[in-house]
Amino acid sequence: MSEDQKRVLEQQLWNIANTLRGKMNADEFRDYILGFIFYKYLSEKMEIFANVILKQDKIKFREIIRKDVINNVSTANDFLEAIKEEALEKLGYFLRPEELFTEVAKRGMGNNEDIDQFDESKTNFILEDLQKILTNIQLSTMGTDSEEDFDNLFEDMDLNSTKLGKTPEARNTIIAKVLTHLDKIDFKLENTELDVLGDAYEYLIGQFASGAGKKAGEFYTPQEVSKILAKIVTTGKQKLKSVYDPTCGSGSLLLRVAREVKDVAIFYGQEMNRTTYNLARMNMILHGVHYRQFDIKQEDTLEYPQHIEHLPFEAIVANPPFSAKWSANPIFTSDDRFSQYGKLAPSSKADFAFVQHMIYHLAENGTMAIVLPHGALFRGGAEQHIRKFLIENKNYLDAVIGLPANIFYGTSIPTCIMVFKKCRENPDDVLFIDASNDFDKVKTQNILREEHIEKIVSTYRNRTETEKYSKRATLQEIITNDYNLNIPRYVDTFEAEEPIDINAISNDLKALETEMKNTDKEIAEFCAALGIETPF
């Protein structure tokens, strides 16, 4: 599929999403459209899988319930049970033929022949049926290894919400329209080499983030920032045993890491927001990640870490909420994640609590990259104490990268990336990169182009020193600066002004004075000729 075709698909999905919008805000109608796309994906995956199994019997999955094909109910049930057993093992869920997306869309369409001339009176009522099917997907996993991964995945899709329409009939009409529109789109799941739907899904998440204001930061890291983080933590590696994101949002950052290597054995993530946690699990499954290859948990990462028993992790990435509050409960001074530092991050700013948490989970041969506000580089108190411990006692800090302002949705503040390693190849210095001036402005948002990303990544990988852009600062320099990591202290971006020729300016002023006297003389002559007083 060409880039142009992908763009067409993305636009089609966005147009369908806006069919649902009505009076809902971005994060509300997001849950519906992404949920429907996910249901369509599960259906198509189920049908392709079942048809392969049934190929030797020369029948199709949808034909099992047709009496003219299989007139023996017992035989039909035998087929379904065999397929269900296989599906739960390989796919992690099961759908009956009549529960497939296409079948429900057809029933909803009813006697309407033209989607653009949709007559409510000709539709069939499918809301109850559809809600039951979404519940059945979850119920099919009960007691299996995939139960946790599918638990309450569709809980944010309330088909009885008045936001979809004031009456059940109005809600039914809008849902039937959306399903019919989606049914006409080919996700091309048969071509396993393409991730067309995955790319389109990422596009939609990005579109919703751009309209979600401050809430966007809860679930989405701009792709260009994700790309930088992913390329940094995969430097020099083709395969990863594990990748971990303690504030995983929609899971996009984890999936971005996977694009930079040939294989990731398992993905770990934790997300506090329930709706976003559901989105992350959908995103994983929809990108073809097997349910046994990801472990996404819902809970507060700092207060209730969920993956302690699985550490260490080879690659760790995160874009935690900037300067969030946390309990900083004194009990954490005996927690292995924080105890060796002697101080906890302040309760008003959890930035370094996330750093400490991530370092505890990092493997000896691993790399972690975290996005933080610039304040984390220079604030005093406990944060300065933690910086000192990480640099002087552990020598874990590998690089500090300054990013442009206004590249994150919901905040315009400039941010930075801090890179940590437990076993550094270059233990004598820390690389500082000032990429704050390399961006393009698109409408109200600053964005990083491919050349900006490549410049950052290549500078990091080669540890290149470039005037006014990057500098390898010795540990002694950092100590001299009292562990203040503010980038301008190390990367001199000062631009000298053009020298001023005082003599030339003096001569210009003299010439101007002469010109003004001549002008005054001419005005006086005109006034005399007119018989009026001069104005000076």
Commentary on this structure:
With 536 residues, the chain is of the alpha/beta class. The protein folds into three domains: 3-206, N6 adenine-specific DNA methyltransferase, N-terminal domain (Ferritin); 222-489, Rossmann fold; 500-536, no CATH class. 43% of the residues lie in helices and 12% in strands. α1 (3-21) crosses α2 (26-54), α1 runs antiparallel to α7 and α1 (3-21) packs across α8. The longest helix has 29 residues, at 26-54. The model has no long low-confidence stretch (mean pLDDT 90).
Spatial gap, N to C terminus: 79 Å
Strand content: 5-15%
Q: In CATH, what is the homologous superfamily of the largest domain?
A: Vaccinia Virus protein VP39
Share of helix among residues?
40-55%
Name of the CATH first level of the largest domain = Alpha Beta
Strand order of the largest sheet: 5-4-2-6-7-9-8-10-13
CATH overall fold name of the largest domain: Rossmann fold
How do you describe this structure in short?
With 536 residues, this protein is of the alpha/beta class.
Descriptive keywords:
536 residues, alpha/beta, Ferritin, Rossmann fold, 3 domains, nine-stranded mixed beta sheet, two-stranded parallel sheet, 17 helices, 13 strands, globular
Question: In terms of topology, how is this protein built?
Answer:
Layout: H1 3-21, H2 26-54, H3 73-90, H4 101-109, H5 127-139, H6 147-150, H7 168-183, H8 196-210, H9 223-233, E1 239-240, E2 243-245, H10 252-259, E3 263-264, E4 267-271, H11 274-286, E5 294-298, E6 313-318, H12 351-361, E7 362-373, H13 375-378, H14 382-393, E8 397-402, E9 415-421, E10 429-434, E11 440-442, E12 445-447, H15 450-462, E13 470-474, H16 475-480, H17 502-530
Helix pairs in contact: 1-2, 1-7, 1-8, 2-7, 2-8, 2-11, 4-7, 9-10, 9-15
